């Protein structure tokens, strides 16, 4: 997919990573359509990038179809919006569980269906899902977040096969811990010693690369964290013990506290 003059819909464009993603895609020559709930942030950003702003709440089921109708024919969907969904399941109301599942998993699936059908008819398009290394490795106090991000991985890998004959690409991006802006940085949580981070720009660069090269999956994390994630995939019990030993449970506790207001 050539991003020059491509129409790209970015969800979560008001967020720490979404804003940088929007800037990166516009710099690549894309015509960006930006969405999020905070219209006061969305509109100036879209104006600055010569794009369009369409405020929408992705937990509102009807709003998703309206959003795609308003966006018109899009060449690329970047499903980036998410809620942190951290904390103990016991501390969640059923409504909060539904919202996390709706925003993090249902909305990307429904948007991929609606946008993907139009892309398949035109034999041109790309669907990108911003997951997380939490879509490959679980940690305490993140059962809902892990559920949505693991789910997204399976969905995207299967969809990639189904979309292949229609010339529509599907990619998933897996950021590790992102510094400076976004849901981790906003939480004020601290990391165990030795755990490295990446920047929102690194996520934007990886997303552009995934679209342009039609990559199935891209990790955005230091090698050490990618290796730990690889181990978690084959030996989750070992990974859980290592996380406890290096004090990962302190970080997950801090994250749950710092992200509680975003349920
Ligand atoms: N930051 C990290 O360390 C990190 C690491 C791995 C993966 N990720 C992933 O990267 C992506 C972006 O995260 P971020 O760090 O930029 O988080 P963020 O700063 O909290 O931004 C989240 C975005 O999601 C949008 N959103 C939340 N609820 C919504 C709703 N009901 N309807 C529409 N939009 C909604 C927010 O927009 P409004 O508030 O305006 O609605 C905001 O733009 C997420 O998928 C996240 O899981 C982040």
From TrEMBL:
Keywords: Oxidoreductase. Gene3D superfamilies: NAD(P)-binding Rossmann-like Domain. It comes from the Bacteria. Pfam families: adh_short. SUPFAM superfamilies: NAD(P)-binding Rossmann-fold domains. GO terms for cellular component: membrane. One of its GO terms (molecular function) is oxidoreductase activity. Belongs to the short-chain dehydrogenases/reductases (SDR) family. This is Short-subunit dehydrogenase. It comes from Streptomyces netropsis (Streptoverticillium netropsis). The lineage of its organism: Bacteria, Bacillati, Actinomycetota, Actinomycetes, Kitasatosporales.
